[in-house]
């Protein structure tokens, strides 16, 4: 029996004459933290976009939790249990931290269940409790009534993570979660991601910061020119000559 929650097989995507993805094969084990690294333009974001329904591959299959993801709209994929944290947080700047976390929590509930008014009122309490719990976990509780526009970039990214976690995803996609952060904020984010690892959510992380990759990932896939050129544990990837050559032109990771 397979323990893979996500299987990408033979995926290809062209943009005009450019082959952005070329026969991509990649399997993600349930409950693992799987990093995808590679130089600029390797196709990492395009692949992620295929997983959330923003881009439809020209070829190949993508199977998540036993069903095909292809042809489904982003909203349906989100309801199926995939949440994504973007490079630029997608949050509501005029609202408070708590309001931002409540929105996806309710969206998840309303999408998952058809409820009458009484049930809905009862669930309201449960949803709020869950939101409070997650804000506490992500060290955002003290800022719960702050208007989001006034927060630092690092805090906004943490908020976006909270907005994903409150949906109880089976798979969390993190697109450069530490991009533009100071070293201190990066280290905090790494600690946080380790902490939420205990929730058993599978994570796929695209990241340029090798310190982040090697401190978090159990498995690393290396992409270059639209395809996966190497795969292994962080130690195997660090030691791989193919990776050193193709990814960094011979420099050491
Ligand atoms: N919508 C698009 N239309 C045309 N070309 C695109 C489009 N999206 C991506 N590309 C091209 O596809 C290739 C792969 O881009 P992609 O953004 O997936 O790479 P990446 O590995 O995520 O890079 P980075 O690390 O810089 O984010 C690049 O050459 C890019 O210019």
UniProtKB/TrEMBL annotation:
Pfam families (alphabetical): ABC_tran (PF00005), BCA_ABC_TP_C (PF12399)
Domain ABC transporter: 6-250
GO molecular function: ATP binding; ATP hydrolysis activity
UniProt entry tagged with the keyword Ubl conjugation: no
Keyword annotations from UniProtKB, A to Z: ATP-binding, Nucleotide-binding, Transport
PANTHER family, per the entry: CONSERVED COMPONENT OF ABC TRANSPORTER FOR NATURAL AMINO ACIDS-RELATED
Protein name in UniProt: ABC transporter ATP-binding protein
Species annotation: Jiella flava
